[in-house]
Design goal:
This protein has two domains: 85 residues, Winged helix-like DNA-binding domain superfamily/Winged helix DNA-binding domain (Arc Repressor Mutant, subunit A, Orthogonal Bundle); 49 residues. Helix 1 packs across helix 2, helix 1 crosses helix 4 and helix 7 packs antiparallel against helix 8. The chain has eight helices and three strands; from the N terminus they run αβααββααααα.
Length: 185
């Protein structure tokens, strides 16, 4: 998530480290704290890989010089590759998915964008549940069946299922509408 965020924000504009950290913190800081001890090593890795360039610019008035980061051509290609080839946790983990979705517009090809959205849609259409029936409440094949919110006595677990269902239904509607729009356009 961190490297994708760095590449995504720098794709939009060159930034100095402090501004980059503010933007990343606003995006993923609630999930994973973004301190200097995590940000700057990631920047160094990307810079060493030839994906970022650093330029020293004089700060305002008597301020110290600032290092402004920008993407190289390889960095721009790497961001687009990571977006186009998103699989696994990038599609199934909600926080990673939202990070990826934040920058998906940088993937210029609507057909490539649609393929990513289609993979997320396929994942969401798989039946899932957080909670299953107790022992002996299986289906005809002896498999435990997912519980519906209405079947739960625990109001908090019922809340988890109710919110998850509403969120998933909203996302499914958005994905289907956006896919239709991308495939038309």
């Amino acid at each position: 998530m961190l490297e994708l965020s760095i590449l995504g924000f720098l794709y939009e504009a060159p930034l100095h480290g402090y501004e980059l950290r503010k933007r990343i913190t606003a995006l993923i800081g609630h999930v994973r704290p973004v301190g200097e001890s995590t940000l700057y090593p990631a920047i160094k890795r990307l810079e060493k890989a030839g994906l970022l360039a650093r330029e020293t610019q004089q700060g305002p008035a008597a301020a110290a010089p600032r290092h402004v980061l920008s993407l190289t051509g390889d960095g721009r290609r790497e961001l687009r590759r990571r977006l186009a080839e998103a699989e696994g946790p990038e599609l199934t983990d909600e926080n990673r998915w939202f990070t990826l979705l934040t920058f998906l517009r940088h993937l210029d090809d609507p057909a490539a964008q649609a393929r990513v959205l289609r993979r997320r849609l396929d994942f969401l259409e798989e039946p899932t549940s957080f909670f299953y029936g107790s022992e002996g409440e299986g289906d005809a094949h002896g498999q435990e069946r997912p519980l519906r919110a209405e079947e739960l006595d625990d109001p908090f677990r019922r809340g988890v299922l109710t919110v998850a269902r509403a969120t998933t239904e909203a996302e499914l509607a958005w994905l289907r509408a956006t896919l239709a729009e991308l495939e038309r356009g």
